[in-house]
Each structure stands twice: as structure tokens, then as C-alpha cells.
Amino acid sequence: MLDVTRLRVLVAVARKGSVTAAAKELHYSQPSVSHHLARLEAETGAQLIQRVGRGIRLTDAGHLLAERAAEIITRLDATAEELAAHVGLRSGRVRLAAFPSALGTFVPRAVRRLSAEYPGLQLSLIETEPPEALRLLRAGRVDVAVMFRYDDTAPEDTGVQMLHLLDDPSYLVSPDPPGPLAEHADSMWIAGCDRCRSHLLDICAKAGFEPRISFTSDDIVAVQALVAAGMGLTVLPGLALSAHRSAAVEVAEIPGSTRHVFAATYGDPPYPPATQALLTALTDAWPG
């Protein structure tokens, strides 16, 4: 049986044109390359290399074997990669952080698909807002972070890769038909997380006023209950309203106010098979 390592040496010599260049590419010594070639000739019973001056060239038999060996090695490498991915997805794990309204809408669809396709893959979920999700991502405690940003949000750190998933419009939420944002300069307001609060201040400033914030809560159920009770107005993204919409409130889309939802990873691709499978499932999960 032909030795795969020696076939790799022959392919490298054929590609590079010399023993020296092949040795450098393979990180072998020149005598080691020459030894592998000699052993390959002994195994095949064919002369594969001819000496030409100070150099070498492949014989017809050498060219034939090098061509076939390149095909074999390509198939072997591809098979090894497929097997590694298969084993990794059958027995590996992947960790995801996501903000609440993502967990309440499209993330479960992605999880269901992932579980159906890779039942042996262990998935852990953490609910957290984007700043903490980024910290977990940088610390290596999660593999993917589903997060959102607005146009005025500060850029992420170098090394964070952002895969766009969807654009999520913002809505003005009121106990009565709300009308334009600028008509509510004298209203009381309910704010959400830090990033959402900053966005509320920004869009109100563009409408010509500073909102008087009376309450702060990340709980979309509680926020809508407070709005329904007349305790103030709020701004909620579409995902939050898809996760929970109180029948006691009215909503109106705010033109030009959109947050962008991403799946963030740390470091450059290619990613481990489990991470890539999760990214694919998240990409396909919206709209559901």
C-alpha cells in the first residue's frame, strides 16, 4: 500500500519543482524529502525522479503518480474535514447570548432547527443586553452574541465580526392613538435598557424636546402595563411587540427609527462547525 505521507512529498515536489522548495513548504529537511522519494520509488517499482544537472524532474511515471496522488490527497483532506465537522456537531457544544426580545421571537426557531439537525449538539443560552453580551464574547464565555445597535451606537471593538440578521423598526407606545412623536413633548416617558434609553433621548432630541423619564424598566410586559395605566409613553422595537403586545396599548411606527440586529462573533472565520451551524440557523430564523 502506498504511503500517504510520501505521496504528499511527491505532490509537493511536482508543484514546487525542486526538492529544496518542497522541503521548505513541508517543513522537512532536504534529506528527509529525498528519503521519502526513494522509498516511494521502492514501493512502486518505478523511477519517479530524474537527475538533471543539479536539479531534478519527474519522469512520465512520476507525473502520472503525482497527478493521481493530488486527487487522492484532496479527497482525503475533504473527507477528514467533513468527518471532523460531523463529529464536532454530534458531540460538541455552542453557547449563545441574546437580548430578551430576540429570545422571545426568532431565537427559539433557530434553536429548534439546530436541535433537529444536530440532536447531539449541546446548546446553552444566556439572556443579556448587548454590552454584557460583548463582554462575554470577548472573554470566550459565549460563541455567538445576538445583539442590536442603533445608527448612533458606538462601534464595536476590533475583532468583533457582525453578521446582519434583520432591521427592527421602533414604535411609539401609548394608551391612546399616539400621533407624531413631536406632539408628546410634555408627556412622561418610560425608558428601557441603557442602549434603548440613549436611543429614546436621541429620537426625542431630533423631534425637538427632551423626554421627562419617570420610570425605567427592561420588562416589556411591565412597561406596557405602565403605559396602559397612564404612567407614561414608551418606545419599543418591533421584536418586543412581537414577543408581547398588550391589548390595552396603541402603537405607531416611528419613521427613521430602526435598530439593527446582528449575530456577533469574536475573531476571524472560518469558525468551528458548531458555531457556523448556529449562525446559519439564526440567519434563516427570521422571518419565521
Write up this protein.
- The structure is a single chain.
- α1 crosses α4 and α6 packs across α11 (273-284).
- The radius of gyration is 30 Å and the shape is elongated.
- The protein starts with a helix and ends with a helix.
- It contains eleven helices and ten strands.
- Helix content is 46%, strand content 25%.
- The model has no long low-confidence stretch (mean pLDDT 89).
- Strands 4-3-5-10-6-9-7-8 form an eight-stranded mixed beta sheet, with helices on both faces. A two-stranded antiparallel sheet has the order 1-2.
- The protein has helices spanning 4-16, 19-26, 30-44, 60-91, 100-103, 107-117, 130-138, 194-206, 220-228, 238-243, 273-284, and strands at 49-52, 55-58, 93-98, 122-127, 144-149, 160-174, 188-191, 212-216, 233-237, 250-266.
- The protein is α/β, with parallel strands linked by helices.
SSE blueprint:
Elements: H1 4-16, H2 19-26, H3 30-44, E1 49-52, E2 55-58, H4 60-91, E3 93-98, H5 100-103, H6 107-117, E4 122-127, H7 130-138, E5 144-149, E6 160-174, E7 188-191, H8 194-206, E8 212-216, H9 220-228, E9 233-237, H10 238-243, E10 250-266, H11 273-284
Parallel strand pairs: 3-4, 3-5, 7-8, 7-9
Antiparallel strand pairs: 1-2, 5-10, 6-9, 6-10
